[in-house]
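[[Per-residue structure]]
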Amino acid sequence: MQNKVPEVTIAFWTIKVLSTTVGETGADYLAVHVGLGTAVTIALTLMFLAAALVAQLKKRAYVPWIYWLTVVLVSIVGTQLTDLLSDVLGVSLYVSTAAFGVLLCVIFEVWYQSERTLSIHTIVTRKRELFYWAAILVTFALGTAAGDLATEALGLGFGPGVVVFGFLLVMMGVAAYLGANRVLTFWLAYILTRPFGASLGDLLSQSREYGGMGMGTIVTSVAFLSVIVMLVILHTAARTRHGNASTT
């Protein structure tokens, strides 16, 4: 089958950050403002994620709307997994960050030993795709735990969190440009987009008394989802035009 992951472009990273922010604000909206609670929110979003993953795995090529819907749902589930551990079960953010970090290393090690590559440009078999989505889920959970650890437990705050994680993301781009290992810098950047997007989402949605801008989770989620939908539609249209041009 064809590679099931989109090309890594500015649009890719833009949608990734937006989906990360939606994961943070969307999870908070469902669990807190709707009143579903963490456990019910996880159960509900897990069902939607399972359906999206089935649709994604059935396709033989990259389909933009299915892929990015799956990413958004993985973002929400990853956020809720961390919140369940810290808020409901009382697990320290230090422990959950370390645990998710170790789990991600294990997934990468098993993936590499099996396939001899961690490149997202070679997701052309079902096994590699399963490894890929397992890694994606854990990167979201790890990024959530690390972001909460930095902005809340260590007192960094939402605004400084956006600046710090944004700077680290830029450094990953600079490192890749200067010749650093592209696979390594990609995965490090992918992890960093989670705390960056979460800090951005909290900065926009949280009330001013907690250091936010007071936009609320509904407005923030709807605004970012609208941009995601627009970018995916434009991306799909561009792929369609390119495909038509290639056949003429």
About this structure: Helices lie at 10-33, 37-58, 64-88, 93-115, 126-153, 158-177, 182-205, 217-246. The chain has one domain: 10-246.
